[in-house]
Amino acid sequence: MDMSEDGTTTGVTRYMETLLRGLSACPDIEVCWIRLVHSRSKLIHRLERVGTHLEYMIPLPLSMEPVLNESYWNNKYNSVVFYIIKHLFASKSNVILHTHTLNLIDLALYIRSKVDCKIITHLHCIPWKGLYNRNPEHFNRLYKLAYVHPSSETDLELVLTDWEHRSYTLADRLICVTQCGADFVRKGVAGALPPTDIIPNGMDDFYEKRTVSRKKDKLIRLVYVGALSPGKGLPFILEALRGVKQRGYDNIQLQIAGSGHPRFVDSLASQYCDLDVRFLGLLPFDKLKEVYQNSDIGVIASLQEQASYVALEMSMFGLAVITTAVDGLDEMFTDGVTALKVGVTFSAEDGLKVDVKMLEDKLIELIEDKKKRHRLGYNARQMYLEKLTLEQMTERTVSIYRQLI
Question: Where's the Glycosyl transferase family domain (predicted)?
């Protein structure tokens, strides 16, 4: 089960689509993806078969606040959803509710009260860190509690809501995609937790060796992939590129694949019109593959990230990667071996920022050293093959399913 906004693709959506491809190789596992979708046009629930699995689209209320925060309406909505989907559980045994959005825990608990089943909470992102985009002041206060003045008391303040707490404590199993995610839950919850597993995200291998040589030009192609939002750090990349250009390197092109609020995108395009930047928009994966295959360096400047599919893709395609040393990105990559890492800075006045001067230096380091680019890209691809394939992720996940039943 997951919750999403109609027409958007998130890391959780990517994970779900990827896991379903992996589970299609397990004929003894019946899968139904229950999708709770916020949409102004899709107002009727719909069940359909997609390949080897079922997909059940359930509309969310147009006004979500009362449903999430008022127990009466929450329970009413959950009872309606269960009435719609209860036929899925008829004559079924060994049922597992694998929840991928924390605020669906109350629906999962409601179903468990009616059906013999187990609940898995899958932690894809840490809720308080998402405040960077929505409420910077609140984010800065919590960041200070977490990293500047940490203590066992302040750790408890980082779990923001009752439903987040229930997601961690009332599930039968907890899956985290990173060690830092598991550590966050362990420190932030007083009392007993369910057994916890760490399963990094994996993905299919789409790598194809380039068969046609690129024109022998001196252009260094950088690629940024992801949402165009403040928390993904794109303005810091652009600022670093301006510094690189001012230091005499004018053979750099940045391709940006992703979407964002038009005002934010227009502001960046206007502010950095002196740079060679291509805004490609949101690309289908076949087109994105071509961008990866024709790029030299992948740049990630996220200020918080658990298990980035962009980082996975860049590694799988054998790109030299420059990344911020935060959260799951710091766990995934080894500095100087599989990527070059860039630090972040924090102050009460400016909040959390990427170290732009350090990013600038790392960019120049790779621009000047083609052999290092190739070595980092090769090592990153080997890391993907050894640890982050779809088969490995699926095997670990199915192992937990079998333990629960």
Answer: 208-383
